[in-house]
Amino acid sequence: MKRILNNAVSLIVVMIVLLLIIPLNTFFLDVMIILNIAVSMVILLVSMNIKEPLEFSIFPSLLLITTLFRIGINVSSTRSILGNSGTAGAVIRAMGDFVLQGNVVVGVVIFLIIVLVQFLVITKGAERVAEVAARFTLDAMPGKQMAIDADLGSGLINEQEAKERRHKIQKEADFYGSMDGATKIVKGDATMSLIITAVNFIGGCIIGMVQGGMDFTEVLSVYAIATVGDGLVSQIPALLISTATGMIVTRAVAEDSLNVDVTKQFLAQPRAMMIAGGVLAILLFVPGMPKFQLAVVSGVLLIGGWQLSRRMEEMSIPAQAQGGAAGISEAEQMQAAEEESFKDINSVYSLISVEPIEMEFGYSLIPLVDEASGGKMIDRIVIFRRQYAQEMGLVIPSIRLRDSSSLNTNQYVIKIKGEEVAKGEILVDYYLALEPPNLEKEIDGIDTIEPAYGIPSKWITVDKKEMAEIYGYTVIDPLSVMLTHLSETVKKHAHELLNRQEVVRLIDNMKQQSPELVDELIPALISYGNFQKILTNLLKEGIPIKDMETIMETIVDSAMTVKDLDTITENIRVALKRTITRKFCEGGSMKVVTLDAELEKNIVTSLTAGERGMYLALSPDVMQNVITQLADEVKKFHELAQTPLILTSQVVRVHFYRLVEQFYPDVHVLSFNEISNNIQIQAIGNITL
Length: 689
Prior knowledge:
Helix content: 55-70%
Number of helices: 26
Strand content: 5-15%
Distance between the termini: 90 Å
Low-confidence stretches: 323-328
Structural class: alpha/beta
Largest sheet: 4 strands, mixed
Mean pLDDT: 80
Shape: elongated
Radius of gyration: 40 Å
Strand order of the largest sheet: 2-1-3-4
């Protein structure tokens, strides 16, 4: 039984479809017509008693089902009218006799009036309201999202309440979008009813006169009753449903049910009632007007408005006194709460905290991020964080996603510790086509630059995607473009995200594996701060810190005799040579640019001791010469689509890296000791003195 109830709607829809095929006798046809009227009445009453449209969120689907139900009844009744000489059940005959009253013209006119009122007034108005409501609801989504973020940030709501409010906003947008389409169904239903009525009447006349041998008067009497009755039993439920549609889409600012709102708001305006009563009293002096009816209605309005006005005045006096006291009390409470808030230092510190990573979006990019709209951004970020942790040994902090009204609709901004570090622009309905090195044929599109790697690209429409791939372009969807930019930006600034708290977590995790090693290292040989600096140096140059045991063992071995952190870092890099080789080697070979022996000798002689250790003091001419040559060598790597690598001796590696990173932060500097012996090194350039 429970399984049947769970699938009741599906069974009903199947039965409705069968009405279009299987003939019904008049008894069951009467049952279906009565049921149709009853369901329509229930839907109208429900729409009048809800407080907000989302309480009746199934209405668009219900509208489709009821419309299909009416069409099924129409088909069955048409089959019965044309096949049984105008006999289509007691309900249709009774309705036709009641409306026609022996006059076919009057009945047809009344029927046409009902249809036209539904079609031109109620349905058309509801369609326009639904269209505007859908548009304004979608336009208001970013502002509502910002309000939720503001309330969440100020502590007025918690994360669960914010999630519920965001879900409600999304449901409103989906509901009004569905209603915009559902009103088209109502409009089509009204048009179809006119066509069915005409078909019944014309078909009945042809069948009666040609096949039945009736004269025109008899045909008109028999088939007019059936046609008008059939049209009315179809149009009355349709009119109720159309009215319910209008009720639903116009309940945007309702506070309670329609009955309560109408009563409350009308009774709140006694002056309007008294003025209306006065105008009706003046009409008593117009000759020919019905005096009794006007006097009764005018008196009711005047007396009712006067009584309501007196009651409101009596209630306002104590309310004003209480309101004044309450206002003073509330103001005092707010002032006291504000003073108390300032006394609590934690409430002030909460205002100056910054997020490690933030990403802000323009309005058009919200569907890519919002899970309720099918956005996959959050899932992709989770995958990226897991992959980065597995590869580099660092857990990226949570990324705060939020919309921003200060950005253009297609823009996004990436922030690290509250400051903007990258920006991009996405066209949601387009694909990004990356130009190949050897472009055979160009495709039409909007020229742009790929934000993560700076590759010349084009935004192309969906229909040009296959052609672009044939021409050799690499085609990427908008979400992947944005996520790639985010991941590359995070990788570039990963060393800034390694704070002291994360270092403590890494050490605590290592204690579970090698507690003796951790106890020997920290704090006996090195402090937490210096250990953080070493890990930061490695991450800054893209060296994974996943092999924490090797890193700690190397520090233990080095710290006995060496105190310089740069030297310890270089020793760690040598210990991690397999990791470094794997990261920068492609296909068993490594293309590099080397330094001339004279240049390395000049660098060694230019090393100067300072307060913070050794630093490079090259002459401006030599520095300019090196940077100029490096620019030409980097172009070779770009043509090969490979990461620029410079190979030096271990002594000068770190100093040369600090020189070139100011001009080319994407260039990696390696030493010969950091590369495994089984790797073939291919020098594609040489920087000389």
